[in-house]
Amino acid sequence: MISLRYGTNPHQKEAFLEFPEPSPIKIVNGAPGYINMLDALTSWQLVRELKEATGKASAASYKHVSPAGAAIAKPIDDAFKESQFLKTTDFSPVASAYVRARGGDRLCSFGDVLAVSDVVDVSLAQFLKTEVSDLIIAPGYEPEALEILKQKKKGGFCMLEIDYDFMPTGIEKREIFGVTVAQDRNSRLFTKDDFKNVLSANKDISEEALDTLLVAAISLKYTQSNSISIAYDGQIVGMGAGQQSRIHCTRLACDKADKWFLQRHPKVRGLDFKDGLKKVEKTNLIDQYLLWDSLSAHEEANMLENFNTRPEPISREERAEWIKQYDDICLGSDAFIPFRDNIDRASRSNVKHIVETGGSLRSDLIIEAANEYNMTLTATGIRSFLH
């Protein structure tokens, strides 16, 4: 048994970990809290499954038991570099996976728990040492990378090491209000074979788009249930997590994805910030700029004070035109899509591929809507609720 800092809240003093023997997890540095461990153990499952499904180094950035971002390793282009305030694009595969995962929603990734599928190397450690994060879980650490990260947070950065081959089986249990609930553990892993049932007239899914669909589907499996994901080029760019209505999930995910693509717009990349602003401050300003129409007069005034010259808003027409240039945007749903309004909203974010469970009473209407927009629609037959 290992004591934790505290439970869900600081007044819940009694909190601890109990491991099976031999323990699959080692606390390398720091003292994690209860929610840290929920994020760590959930995010680890995501990146491990993603690595198994794609064969590529994978990473996830978690906040409050849902991914702010997830990605597989791919080269980073100049537009991503500039929009994310990066100083280089020269990253190792495992580092590129995390840089892309964190960049999927950099506002929500602030103070995250991160998981990576591969051994932490110097490339990742050098990037991570200046980012605001609480904990990392990985299958191992290079000695130099370990020493770099031990300096983070004045020596208090939490680092966990987990046995890559550990895979629990049988019954899993949770206690809620003094009552124990139990079920077979969801050990069903996604593979590319699960994506062969394409119901739409358009069945043209490239290998790269298939990898992105896997990112969308697997990320949803480890998100609070009733969620929609938007993925592009092997990374999550919008997550609508845990909403009571699926259309609200879709709107939330698509709105986040739209903002992600608009971060690359020339008007955003040309914003004339005042000197001395930190990266997180610029991130918040860009978020406000892209939500300009919804700002109060006070918020607008505060935003404009941080620019040397007044920026020009991006019009509705410019936004739509900009997003149209991006191909193979994917939408994932962790259960069946019940109404075509989800498809209609997705079309406005230029979604081209959809993966869902299938089996809705209105499946014919969902397929019809996908065909109207020349989307591909894949039904896996797998509902992937986390809880």
UniProtKB/TrEMBL annotation:
UniProt keyword list: Transferase
GO biological process, one term: 'de novo' IMP biosynthetic process
Transferase keyword on record: yes
The name this protein goes by in its record: Phosphoribosylaminoimidazolecarboxamide formyltransferase
InterPro entries reported in the protein's UniProt record: AICAR_Tfase_dup_dom_sf (IPR024051), AICAR_Tfase_insert_dom_sf (IPR024050), Cytidine_deaminase-like (IPR016193), PurH-like (IPR002695)
GO molecular function terms attached to this record: IMP cyclohydrolase activity; phosphoribosylaminoimidazolecarboxamide formyltransferase activity
Gene Ontology CC entries for this record: cytosol
EC number(s) reported in the record: 2.1.2.3
Enzyme class: transferase
Keyword Glycosyltransferase: no
PANTHER family: BIFUNCTIONAL PURINE BIOSYNTHESIS PROTEIN ATIC, BIFUNCTIONAL PURINE BIOSYNTHESIS PROTEIN PURH
Source species, domain of life: Bacteria
Pfam families on file: AICARFT_IMPCHas (PF01808)
